[in-house]
Design a protein that fits this description.
With about 375 residues, the protein is an all-alpha fold. It is built from 19 helices and no strands.
Length: about 375
């Protein structure tokens, strides 16, 4: 293994686990965390959760190629390992945070998150990062000695604040975990967790271009008008005139991917050289993130995101589907809350014993947010009826 930089998270300096365990003889703490996440039920369910397109969208052939929340997560983890390795960071911790970052996502992607946030507003709110913490500290129940996965402090910190310090009112799920073990929410996350956050941006900006083209929501010619993407297509056309259209698309978007990754690495290397942090706490106490895009590339990515927002995330066909799945969750959540006997046996038995409506709402949230797209659709058809 390459020697770690002084500002990286070193396994020997880990703050450990809430419940102390015997150290592994052949795996570092974050390798164990990574493996526990991969073997979790929540991780497996990501394969049937929306990234942008609902799993059953479109014809079977084309739909099979769209990213799911699981394939997105795998791509984020790959990018995170690449960036972390180039910067002398702990690749295992960066990968762990990347693999866990979307565990709390409900069915139907951000549309499902918006619906559940509205439904949970009277009961403490909903946030997918906070729900991911709830999953890894409570809801996964496979181990004899503890609920959750008993992850290290550094992994929990990364899940909580990979997008930056957290201030103000906390979602109840995050507040509960933080009360049990202070995650120092007012500071930056480790550089490894910051890498996972930027890797998320790189991955979805890259693969959403692929998926939008496959869904025929826009064309290569339209993308060629955008910064970064236009020069990438021009370079491919110069190097490979007359290239097959599918190969041309992949070659160009591969270069877009490379521009983003190389920019993040170059900016981080320059900042690290200039600031000379000597520990992970130096990273945490900086006045901003150490891992980020350069200003020019960030502005170009904003232009790409704006295009995707208008032409993909708010495309008429996508908006229709968003409305449909929002209605499904607005049907299912109050149904389970008001009549918990309709929950599956184990869930229903617990819910029926709860007199406090907020407590019951949070249990219903755990159940509904854990659903896959297809299970939510099937339950809606069973309990509400076909549309």
């Amino acid at each position: 293994m390459t020697a770690l930089a002084p500002y990286a998270c070193h396994p020997a300096d880990s703050r450990g686990r809430l419940l102390t365990e015997k150290l592994s003889t052949f795996r570092s703490p974050w390798q164990r965390d990574r493996d526990r996440i991969i073997h979790s039920s929540a991780f497996r369910r990501l394969k049937h959760k929306t990234q942008v397109f609902v799993e059953h969208d479109g014809d079977a052939y084309r739909g099979d190629y769209f990213r799911t929340r699981l394939t997105h997560t795998i791509e984020v983890a790959q990018v995170a390992r690449t960036i972390a390795g180039a910067l002398g960071l702990n690749t295992d911790l960066a990968e762990t945070v990347a693999l866990a970052h979307d565990l709390g996502h409900p069915p139907f992607g951000h549309t499902g998150e918006d619906a559940l946030a509205e439904l949970m507003a009277p009961y403490g709110g909903f946030d997918h990062n906070a729900q991911a913490l709830r999953i890894v500290t409570q809801l996964e129940r496979h181990y004899a000695d503890f609920d959750g996965l008993n992850l290290t402090w550094e992994s929990l910190e990364g899940i909580a604040k990979h997008n930056g310090p957290i201030t103000g009112d906390l979602p109840y799920a995050l507040a509960q975990v933080n009360a049990q073990w202070d995650l120092e929410l007012h500071t930056n996350a480790s550089a490894e967790a910051q890498v996972a956050a930027v890797a998320d941006d790189v991955a979805y900006n890259h693969h959403d271009l692929h998926d939008g083209l496959r869904a025929e929501l826009f064309t290569e010619a339209e993308l060629a008008e955008l910064p970064i993407i236009g020069p990438a297509f021009a370079e491919v056309d110069q190097l490979y005139p007359g290239l097959d259209p599918t190969r041309r698309r992949y070659e160009a978007l591969r270069r877009v991917f490379g521009v983003m990754v190389e920019d993040v690495i170059a900016v981080a290397q320059n900042r690290l050289t200039g600031l000379q942090p000597q520990s992970v706490d130096d990273i945490r106490n900086m006045d901003g993130p150490i891992i980020r895009f350069s200003k020019p590339v960030y502005q170009n990515i904003k232009a790409i995101k704006s295009f995707l927002f208008q032409r993909m995330y708010r495309a008429p066909s996508v908006v229709v589907e968003r409305n449909n799945v929002t209605r499904m969750l607005h049907d299912l959540f109050p149904l389970f809350l008001d009549d918990p006997a309709k929950l599956p046996d184990q869930w229903g038995q617990i819910a029926q014993q709860m007199d406090d409506r907020t407590e019951r709402a949070r249990l219903v949230l755990d159940y509904v947010s854990g659903m896959t797209d297809r299970y939510a659709i099937a339950e809606h058809q069973r309990l509400i009826g076909p549309d």
